[in-house]
Design goal:
Strand 4 and strand 5 form a beta hairpin. The chain has 2 domains: about 160 residues, Lysozyme-like (3-Layer(aba) Sandwich), CATH 3.40.80.10; about 55 residues, no CATH class. The two termini are about 15 Å apart. It is globular, with a radius of gyration of 17 Å. Helices cover about 30% and strands about 10% of the residues. It has a 6-stranded mixed beta sheet with strand order 1-5-4-7-3-8. The protein has 8 helices and 8 strands. With about 240 residues, it is an alpha/beta fold. Helix 6 packs parallel to helix 8.
């Protein structure tokens, strides 16, 4: 892992402007998570209009354009409405426990899914580094919308650069050494282990796809195999020995 990213001390250098949304309320939990999204709307002005429209009842704390402009929509101390019905590691009110970051991106709709802009990720990394450091967010709790809402969401998707964030200690890396093997004898055992790791397994196949999208993005089938089992087992072992914070 690379040296942890040291964010600039002045948040004014990380956030370029504010366009405040009326869509927020009070938190009922401390901040322990950060959730990555894509807007699935183009141009970016359409996403901004929706995120700041009182009738839409959706928002996020930040939106980052493809050109790398960081726009604050909701103050961090407030509860933005970005995750919807969601769950992660026992937390049912993900909005109360998280910072939501929207990335300007066309998404999967209409076949327009593509890699994220370099300028956008260059702006995300120092912002996320400051958030993770300020709130002492565990790497395992920097997640995608699909991780916390696998039945409904696929964003930020398989092309989101998790490995680059992991280089700076901002999320968990994808396991590479899988010598511990796959201990799960069937799909049911794997799905129960997914629940133990933190996923909502109400719809097993969707939970499997969400896991693949995050941890094996090159192959998303919604089917359990030995490689998936070995990845999940590695993650569980690292968590249980306290190495995955």
């Amino acid at each position: 892992m690379a040296t942890p990213f040291e964010p600039k001390k002045d948040d004014a250098e990380l956030v370029h402007r504010e366009q405040l949304s009326p869509n927020f309320d009070e938190r009922s939990m401390p901040i322990t998570m950060a959730v990555m999204h894509y807007t699935e709307m183009k141009p970016v002005e359409n996403a901004l209009n929706r995120l700041t429209d009182a009738d839409a009842k959706v928002s996020a704390h930040y939106l980052i354009t493809e050109k790398g402009e960081v726009i604050r929509l909701v103050p961090e101390e407030k509860r933005a409405w970005h995750a919807g019905a969601s769950y992660w590691r026992g937390v049912k009110d993900v909005n109360s426990a998280s910072i939501g970051i929207e990335l300007d991106h066309p998404g999967h709709r209409g076949g327009g899914y593509r890699e994220f802009a370099s300028a956008q990720i260059d702006a995300l990394i120092p912002l996320l580094a400051r958030i993770v450091k300020q709130y002492d967010i565990p790497r395992a709790n920097v997640v995608g919308h699909s991780d916390v809402a696998p039945m409904r969401k696929v964003d930020p998707g398989e092309l989101f650069p998790w490995p680059r964030l992991a280089e700076y200690g901002l999320c968990l890396p994808i396991p590479e050494k899988l010598e511990k093997g796959d201990p799960f004898h069937n799909e049911g055992a794997f799905i129960l282990a997914l629940e133990r790791y933190g996923y909502d397994i109400t719809e097993g196949r969707k939970a499997i796809e969400a896991f693949e999208r995050r941890w094996r993005p090159e192959l998303i089938e919604g089917k359990v195999d030995a490689q998936l089992g070995a990845i999940l087992w590695h993650l569980l072992l690292e968590r249980d020995r306290g190495a995955s914070r």
